[in-house]
Amino acid sequence: MANESRPCPCGIGDRFDHEGCGQEVQVEHIKAYVCKPPASTDEAVVVIHDIFGWQLPNTRYMADMLAANGYIAICPDFFAGREAWKPSDDWSKFSDWLKTRDARKINKEADAVLKYLKEQCGAKKLGVVGFCWGGVAVHHLMMTYPELKAGVSLYGLIKDSDDIANLLNPTFFIFAEKDDVIPLHQVTLLEQKLKKNCKVDFEVKIYPGQTHGFVHRRREDINPQDKPYIEEGRKNMINWLNKYI
Q1: Where are the domains of the chain?
Q2: Full-model pTM
Q3: d(CA 213, CA 217)
Q4: CATH class as words, domain 23-244
Q5: In this predicted model, what pLDDT tens digit does every residue of 114-129 receive, in sequence order?
Q6: Alpha-carbon distance 229 to 123, whole Å?
Q7: pLDDT tens readout for residues 183-236
Q8: Which sequence positions are flagged as catalytic?
Q9: CB contact at 8 A, 126 and 170
Q10: Under DSSP, is residue 101 helix (H, G, I), strand (E, B) or coil?
């Protein structure tokens, strides 16, 4: 890690002042935030939160953005009732906290959410996006659930393993050039493994000058040189979903 005292840079960025256009629902054993588009649709996207949990306004802002682009968007509590991380928490205890919240052990929650989307929302075409912790979760789900037709993993820590390229459907990986936690050589290695072994469409993109969390943790007006990349990241995310869902 670049900095053991701050092992995750998710504290960087803004907490949006966003009320949310959707509503909270109960999905079996977990709660979720759901936002639906004005027109009826059978296309839905699961939005997976970062370490700050499903109630973070920034993540709901992303869900509302997807709904505005025609998707049923659902942001479930993948921590299943356990406490989300708070910026005021002791970062020296972060590693222990994270051990109890493995982004690759969420199948029970994913099963419940996909069933809800199909049975309660009439969804037939499904995708998934996720940020930071949620980016790791997206990578896992895209290797596990064939019904997820498109995935976008945004700055998820790269877990190097033999099966890293076993994607079942098209997946887009977004990274920041100046991410303190995800070194660029790891991104390069991921891309090499995907090129060698991946059987489906994929893209790995590094956004110049950006830091961890830039797509969902930074305001468009933060400064002039970053604005185009923040907007581009969001546009690329939606275009990928549009292309494959």
Answers
A1: 23-244
A2: 0.93
A3: 5
A4: alpha beta
A5: 999 999 999 999 999 9
A6: 31
A7: 999 999 999 999 999 999 999 999 999 999 999 976 655 678 888 999 999 999
A8: 132, 179, 212
A9: no
A10: coil
